[in-house]
Design goal:
- One of its GO terms (molecular function) is rRNA binding.
- InterPro entries: Brix, PPAN-like.
- With about 120 residues, the protein is an alpha+beta fold.
- The protein has helices at about 5-10, 35-50, 95-100, 115, and strands at about 25-30, 65-70, 75-85.
- It contains 4 helices and 3 strands.
- The N and C termini lie far apart (about 55 Å).
């Protein structure tokens, strides 16, 4: 069977240069079971990625990815999801939002910068 390229199959893929320069935020779900193999899996995943202390994160922009791993004990299956995280400004005008995201809006229709803000 042909190999599926996940990025090219997405309708809106979001990739940028700095996405893989930082470690992902790891979220483990349903790994609290007392079985030895489940503890071993949780320990393995925790040691694959350095821990991120969310309370000490200086800038939210430094977290670019989130890795969710869930364990289904009944079926003994792992659910693995890898997300790209993007911080966007909320509650500001459309023009100001573009400036904050380092995009340059078309200002040819405007007479003054105050119309943008």
């Amino acid at each position: 069977p042909p190999v599926l390229n996940v990025v090219s199959s997405l309708k809106w893929h979001y990739m940028h240069e700095q996405q893989f320069t930082h470690h992902p935020l790891l979220v483990l779900s349903n790994f609290g079971l007392q079985e030895l193999q489940v503890k071993l899996m949780a320990s393995m995943f925790q040691n694959m990625f350095p821990s991120i202390n969310v309370c000490r994160v200086i800038s939210l922009n430094s977290i670019k990815r989130c890795l969710l791993i869930g364990y289904n004990a009944e079926m003994q299956l792992l659910d693995f999801r890898h997300y790209s995280v993007k911080v966007v400004p909320v509650g500001v005008s459309k023009g100001l939002k573009k400036l904050l995201q380092e995009k340059f809006p078309n200002m040819s229709r405007l007479e003054d910068i105050s119309e943008l803000l």
